[in-house]
Design a protein that fits this description.
Blueprint (H helix, E strand, L loop, with lengths): L1 E5 L2 E9 L2 E8 L1 H18 L12 H31 L9 E6 L6 E8 L13 E2 L8 H14 L2 E5 L9 E8 L11 E7 L7 H7 L7 E7 L13 E15 L5 H6 L6 H35 L6 H12 L14 H34 L6 H15 L3 H10 L3 H20 L1 E2 L1
Parallel strand pairs: 6-12
Antiparallel strand pairs: 1-2, 2-3, 3-5, 4-5, 7-11, 8-9, 8-11, 10-11
Helix pairs in contact: 1-2, 3-6, 6-8, 7-8, 8-11, 9-10
Amino acid sequence: MAAQHTSDLRIDVQEPASWSRRLAVTVPQERVKRTRQSVASQITRNVRLPGFRKGNIPHSLVEKQFGPAIEQETVDRVIQESYKEVLETGDFQPITQGVVENVHYHPGQDLTFEVHFEVHPRVEIASTGGFTVQRPAADVGDEDVESVLERIRSERGTVRVLEEGVADYNDEVTVELTDLDAEEGSEEAGARPFRFTLGEGQAIPDIEEAIRTLAPGAEGEFTVRYPDDFPDEELRGKEQRLRIRLTELSRRDLPALDDAFAQSLGEFETMDALRERVRADLQKENENRAEAEVRAGLVQQVIEANPFEVPPSMIDRYLGFMTGEAQQEGRAAQPRTPEQEERFSQVRQMLRPQAEAALKRMLVVEHLADREGLRATADEVDARVEKLAEEHGISPSDAWIQLEKGGQIQALESEITEDKVFEYLRSQNTVA
């Protein structure tokens, strides 16, 4: 505990955590007395009592009738003014409202109280070099190109409903599943409808294989086994008897991958030109992904070598942005059922590690940017805007106006700053 003095206040500072401060504040009785006199005088000037002119009520009568109110107002005002003074003269950087506790006051004595709040996390990075990070391969294979082309081809296909034949992979099916092992009257009993595309992993393999034996309108009883890696642990490796009815079968007719198909996309004369564009786009995506993994690896090793904690309130606020709560502030919130609330809490808990990691990354970047003088300069922002303008075929002034209207200038500054920080980290470490 460190003792500090500001004017006539005594402050004992505790650090329960690197991101937390608890202050024990002692206000001398002389200050409390002056504040009480001010409160009593204010009440005397403003109160009205029958038989007395305003402002001329005897002090003894004011004390008798308003004594408890004077004491409470005195305590509230002393705490408010003292806490404000402590924050103005101390270097605490609170990020949450202070919570006041353990207030002790008796007339004629010092007033004491405790207040605790969270502060901006202390980031101290002593080691930034000597690390090795592997850069993932960014090569694009022919199968990667063909996979993208097949996806485009599928999007351009036409769907027809089949009245006969059996289902196959890539067909869209609507089925009704009935759990034959479910107790009668339970939620699991009765036919439940599902619609999905065979072969995309939306159903377990045994169910898909069963559906592939059915024609539209047909049904059958099957025993299926859940995979050992099924997400629901209770069902892993278990068998289940199902009645499966195929109520609708749709098949997508795909166009041929030829020059006419490439021309239908509006930008290409031949399939070779389309393949070249797809390969270039995939190459750029892979390079961006590889760069992101390098940066993640560098900052993770910096954090591991220089550990620090993130305040819970900061994580909670970031979770608010991740889950959309922050965007709903000020609007009438839709009430949630207990089940929805439980599910929402689970989602927040699941995302918490991700939120904490993202905040640590941002704090490391901010700390190094300030320490090493790597903040984006006005000239660098102008140069980046000119580059964007050239890419989009517009003037730099028009690009600047559009970015400013969209609130993107600050994001552009952050992007340039981050690029400079990671260039600095790359120069200190080995990227293999």
